[in-house]
Every structure is written in C-alpha cells, then in structure tokens.
Fold:
Amino acid sequence: MILDKFSLKDKVAIVTGSNTGLGQGICKAYAEAGAKVVGVSRRPSDETAEICGKNFYNVIADLSDTAVIPTIIGKTVEKFGRIDILVNNAGVIKRQDSIEFSEENWDSVLNVNLKTVFFLTQAVAKQFIEQGDGGKIINIASMLSYQGGVRVPSYTASKSAIKGVTMTLANEWAKYGICVNGIAPGYMATNNTEALRQDGERSADILARIPAGRWGTPEDLQGAAVFLASSASDYVNGFTLAVDGGWLGR
Structure:
C-alpha cells in the first residue's frame, strides 16, 4: 500500500534544534509516523519530549562546536542501536547592515549553520555506511538559498552553501543508498522571524508577496519532512524542496 511507504516505524531519527519551532514540529511528525527520535538542543527539549512521548530522547549539545558530534552519534547508537535519518535543522541568524557586519557575527552563524552541519552529516553518513543499508539526510535550507535577503549576509551565505552541499553529498553518497535532500521553508512563524513579524512594515511587505497570505507554521513543514525521510522518496536525491506558500513563484 502506498501509505505504508510513508511510515517511519522503527526508524531512528536525529533532529537538531528540537526544543522549539520547526525542529519541534518535525520531531512530533516523526514520532507520529512511528520513529524513535533523538532531539539535539542546547537547552532541554522538555516540551518536545512531552509532545512526542516515550520514543523521544534528548541530547543536550552546543552545535557551535564540532567537538559535540561524537557524543551525539554515540548516545544515539547507545540508546537506539542505529541511525536512519538526520535532519539538520538547528540554525542561528544575526542581523546587521553588511557594511558594518562583524567577524563575530559571521563566524557564529557559519559555525552552526554550515561547519557543524557538514561534519555532523559526514559522521552520520559513516554510520550509515557501517550499517550497510543507506539512510536519509535532510538539510533545512531557506528562501535565502535562492535569494539575497537584507542585513543577513552570513545567514544567506550559509543557506546558499547548504543547498550546494546537499547536491554535492547526494552525488557522492547515492552509491551507498544515502539520499541527501533539503527543505527550504518560506517565512515561518518561529523564533528566527520574531523581529520581522514585530516590524509592521516589513511584515506587511512579506505577507503581500506570499500567495497563501500568511506566515507558515511548523505544521506546514511536517509533510515534506516525513516524505523525504521515508521510503516514498527513495528516488529523490540532491533536491531542495521549497515549502513557502508560493513565495518563489511570485
């Protein structure tokens, strides 16, 4: 049955940035689809644990430092015995005019959004190869993987790079049965967009361009996240799927 292909029963998924927003929504969707979920967060994901139930396990880690990667892999395998899915969702954004943009703001964003994403993905891929039966990697990109944005040069650089790295890794790892895809959320009502949503003029400009006429929600991302993690997407590789209410088509 076709719906069986969307099941994540007994799969083990790592989702970074699990305590709020899109990451929390993805954890919930995976738990409902039958997966065991390891949420990685800098602070305890207590609310997510309550939502997901007994098959949720929280690893506390600061993803600004790649040194935490062996701990994430080790604790996941120790708890659930394997890894089947990785969602690189955690990210940070710094807003400052590009003419004044600081090196600190550049490095802090690139470290979390790109460097740690790459090396965590590499470590998970090695685990997939050792297990011998492939796996699914989903990188959370952005509208700024396609566009320049304003006052967010490091974020734009990181998300443009994520789209490119997604294609590169798909090219190299398809032979191992590993699918590497991306999701580019549109303008979502999350912590990262709080400043924009509170700016009446900017918020109105954004909403005027979204054909759906509203900000997205974590629930809007759940279907795409389950699809790309499931066997329903086994022949989808190297693609970044926009979930944007029609923004890019405007």
